Amino acid sequence: MPVILTVDDSPSMRKMVAFTLVGAGYQVVEAVDGVDAYEKAQAQSFDLVLTDQNMPRLDGLGLTRKLREHPSFKTVPILMLTTESSDLMKQAGRAAGATGWLVKPFDPNRLIEVIKKVIK
Amino acid sequence: MSLQPTFSTPTVALPVMLVAEVQDSLLVVVHDLKRLDGLLAQTMENLMQRFTAASADLSDPALVAMQELEGVRAGLHAAVTELQFQDMASQLIVHTSKILQGCAYRLASDSMGSEDGDAVPFVDDVPDRPNPVTQDEMQAGSIELF
Question: Domain range spanning residue A20?
């Protein structure tokens, strides 16, 4: 069963994402911000990271940059799931090493489709 | 610290009482927005409990085979998109609150200074970029793969 690390400082968003992913057969590990996510990423491997952008302590772009420096996360898909929709932010996400950019709110079926597409 | 305006553009003198009233009003609005944010968070927590309970009930093996419940399951699944309203609303409220709070402190700083003669410290967390939430409706957002 593929394991997905979901990162969001909003408890309701974490629950919505977990509900969707678990219902689709994925195992989910939740993190409350970038620092928490990075610590969890060092403790175990993941098949995909789904992260918010605007979070305290370490945002999604910062987390992506840090994960890409980590040998085990060089090729793991990292999807940004955020309210941010500007081209500037998307370009920053791409430069940081993100695999894709999803703007909130997400549709559960489309989210699963994208995850199936990028996950190996 | 000097209380003289530091900008060279034309200035408008406002009565101190008017500035104080505007500042008070701004801070009241900030306080109300915080209450609204708290109410939304509490409501969302309750909604999530009911959502999780309903979802668990529908997963009961005795009900899984019931075709009559397919519509209910589909409705619950589709509600995931709308149930993200609190995250977006909260970000909007926090951003707007910080701007209003910044305006209130700026008014005090530029117009009155503090009681001991020093300027009121300017709040340092005023957003320096536009609101990240630009959505006008709760339709699913765009997806872009790089």
Answer: 3-118
* Structural domain count, chain B: 1
ipTM given for this complex: 0.84
Backbone angles phi, psi at A80, to 5 degrees: -90, 130
DSSP string, B81-111: HHTTHHHHHHHHHHHHHHHHHHHHHHHIIII
B57: containing domain: 16-112
- Is the CB of residue A104 less than 8 Å away from at least one CB of chain B? yes
Query: Does residue B127 form part of some domain?
Result: no
Judging contacts by C-beta atoms under 8 Å, the chain A residues touching residue B135 are: 83, 85, 103-105
Walk along chain B (146 residues) and give the pLDDT tens digit of each residue: 444 555 567 777 777 888 888 888 999 999 999 999 999 999 988 998 898 888 888 888 887 778 888 888 888 888 888 888 888 899 899 999 999 988 888 887 777 665 555 555 555 567 777 777 877 777 778 898 99
Contact A101, A93 (CB under 8 A): yes
CATH number reported for the structural domain that contains residue A21 in this entry = 3.40.50.2300
Chain B 35-94, residues with CB within 8 Å of chain A CB atoms? 44-45, 48, 51-52, 55, 77-78, 80-88, 90-91
